[in-house]
Amino acid sequence: MQRRLAISPQLRAWILPLVLVLLIWLLQQFPGIIETYYAQGIYPYIGWMLRVLFGWLPFSVGDVLIAVLIIIAVTTVVKAMRKKKYYTGKLGWLRHLLQQLLKWMLWSYILFECIWGLNYYRKGSAYLLQLQPDVYTTADVDTLLNTVNARLHSLSKDSVVIRQSLTQDRLHLNEMVTAAYTNASQQYGWLALHHTSLKPNLLGPLQSYTGYGGYLFPFTGEAQVNFHALAFTLPFTVSHEMAHQLGFGSESEANLIGYLAGRQSASALLQYSTYAEMHDYAVSDMWVRDSVLAKQRYKEVPYMLQQHRKEMRQWVQAHKHPAQQWLNWMYERYLWSNNQPQGLQSYNRVVAWLIAYGKKYGWHQL
After folding, report:
1. Average pLDDT of the chain?
2. Is 321 within a domain?
3. Does residue 315 sit in the same domain as residue 350?
4. d(CA 171, CA 202)
């Protein structure tokens, strides 16, 4: 009579999460399946449900969850240290604690991938827009700069309207950007955004010292924005975060989708904020290639943008903090681990997308 292999309850508890992690890693190798069945299949319902559940609340549920988790983590460590004598071996309590932490991390990773993370591995904009960002030249970047600068000069003719429209009001910005996505969805149906969830960070003005204007909290679907940032930057920041809510994980693609929505806006302010941001990325790219030409193009923008950039330099200088380097280090590794090998430079890759778009559909379409 054969004896069955006995598996301890402790070992059995690891089998399911480890199998699920392996299945997720396997699925990540098939962007086509993720695009069809997750990004355009399951995720829109997940995102919609999260925004409906939490979007109506005036505060960030995600921030509250983070605070609760920190309290639970600290409490768990303290309890484990107090119960040292109940564990086998001198460091038995520490081994138990690390096992519990690893198990918690595995289940958090599984939940993260199911709720949001698989969007990092979709086909995305390349598939939906039939675009393939390719190697581009200095002349291409210059053409992009001139095109965007022309849009900025045209918009700046209504500088009084733009200045009067500047706002840090969350509800007004939410309405402005949502309307832009509705307009853009007439050309690209997959840009339709049903229900929104735009939140201020519980840190308040202190968020300005982190160096980040906004982020998406994946477990609640909330787009969290620093509404204490300069008003001319806020419309595009909101547009970028709403692109994440639609399931575009890549930062460069969120910039592209935010741009596609922003340019369609009836609001001159949102258009201005969008083109100002794209000009910044293009100038940054040109600086690496030809710093003399980059300086020249930087100075050619409308007077209003020159003044706003001066305000931005002063604002950034006033909000510098040593913690920013540490946060950047962590965030870069987060991007690396989520299919964005360019790290923080991923944001700037929107230049490649815009050039590819201009070459395919005509620069006048930008």
Report:
1. 92
2. yes
3. yes
4. 17
**45-55 pLDDT tens trace:** 999 999 999 99
| Domain end point (choices 85, 103, 121) | 121
Residue 159's SS3 state is: helix
pTM of the model: 0.93
pLDDT, one tens digit per residue, over 162-203 is 999 999 999 999 999 999 999 999 999 999 999 999 999 888
User: One-letter amino acid identity for 334?
Assistant: Y
**Chain-centroid distance, C-alpha 185:** 20
Give the other-Cβ count within 10 Å of 157's Cβ.
11
Residues 104 and 133 in one domain: no
Q: What does residue 13 show for φ and ψ, rounded to 5 degrees?
A: -65, -20
Whether 1 maps to a domain, the answer reads no
Question: Residue 220 in contact with residue 212, Cβ under 8 Å?
Answer: no
Of 206, 265, 270, nearest in space to 238 by CA: 270
DSSP label at residue 206? G
Give me the residue label for tokens 């200045």: 163
Distance of alpha carbon 85 from alpha carbon 154, whole angstroms: 74
Q: Give the rounded percent of residues in the chain with a pLDDT score beyond 70.
A: 94
Do the Cβ atoms of 52 and 143 come closer than 8 Å?
no
Could you tell me if 155 and 77 lie in one domain? no
3-state secondary structure 236-296: HHHHHHHHHHCCCCCHHHHHHHHHHHHCCCCCHHHHHHHHHHHHHHHHHHHHHHCHHHHHH
Residue 130 has pLDDT above 60, yes or no: yes
Question: 35 vs 20, 184, 258, CA distance in Å?
Answer: 20, 21, 19
Encoded tokens for 104: 């918690």
From 121, 146, 179, give the residue that closes a domain. Answer: 121
